[in-house]
Amino acid sequence: MTRARCGIIGFAVCLAAIIVAAPVLGHTETGGAGGFSSGFLHPVLGPDHVIAMIAVGLWGVFLGAPAIWVLPIVFPLIMALGGAFGMIEVPLPAVETGIALSAVVLGICVALALKPPLWAAALIVGIFAVFHGYAHGTEMPVASDAVSYALGFVVATGLLHLCGIAFGGLAKWPVGRIAVRTAGVLIAFAGGAFLTGMA
After folding, report:
1. 36: which residues sit within 8 A by CB, 6+ positions away?
2. Is the pLDDT of residue 78 over 60?
3. Which of 6, 7, 66, 197 is deepest in the core (most CB within 10 A)?
4. Are 168 and 16 a contacting pair, CB within 8 Å?
5. C-alpha of 150 from chain center
6. What gap in Å lies between CA 134 and CA 68, rounded to an integer?
7. Are residues 7 and 171 in contact, defined by beta-carbon separation less than 8 angstroms?
8. Would you list the DSSP string of 93-147?
9. Whether pTM exceeds 0.90
10. pLDDT-derived band of residue 37, with 50, 70 and 90 as boundaries?
11. What Pfam families does the entry give (predicted)?
12. Residue 71 and residue 63 in contact, taking contact as beta carbons nearer than 8 Å
């Protein structure tokens, strides 16, 4: 089996795992109502979150090691902090705009295969992670256990990053590189659509 097929299969497996896990977690009867399952489903069911999370993984692939692992670690950690701010209702303006812009900016970074220094890439990812986490935190169901809910959205985010990394593996070949950069263009356009939809 070629590496290109392995990348496509890996991406498909990641997406299938997320899709299959959603209904399974939706029917768990352990923990508080809206705990881990609600936290897990929140980013997975939000297309604006999904495309940005996948873009982080795709961009990490273009940046190579160590960014391929640093970015998907930085994002969930900072996102959890943003989630805590959302849960305790610390004011943060333009959250939805920040989320939409994350898709635009990260999509452009992938489309252009930009390679800034690691610290700059981590800073960009970290800034946008605050907005995503804040949205998750403010939308936590009232009956939720905050820790379980946060763990849910962090795990789901990590899986979406892995989907991006799996698909980004195609960038090792010229045709795959075009496919990955095209995905970046589509992500940026989708983010733009979210932005214009808010106007």
Report:
1. 25, 28, 148, 149, 151, 152
2. yes
3. 7
4. no
5. 14
6. 24
7. no
8. S-HHHHHHHHHHHHHHHHHTT----HHHHHHHHHHHHHHHHHHHHHT--TT--HH
9. no
10. confident
11. HupE_UreJ
12. yes
What is the C-alpha end-to-end distance of the chain, expressed in Å? 47
Count of domains in the chain? Answer: 1
For residue 172, what are the domain limits? 3-28+35-198
pLDDT tens, residue by residue, 47-68: 999 999 999 999 999 999 999 9
| Alpha helices (H) along the chain | 3-26, 36-44, 47-63, 67-87, 95-111, 118-138, 146-168, 174-198
39 and 149 Cβ atoms separated by less than 8 Å: yes
Q: Which two tokens stand for residue 130?
A: 């605050």
User: Burial level of 196, CB count in 10 A (0-12/13-18/19+)?
Assistant: exposed
Tokens of 87: 């849960």
Tell me which residue of 86, 48, 72, 162 sits closest to 126, measured CA to CA: 72
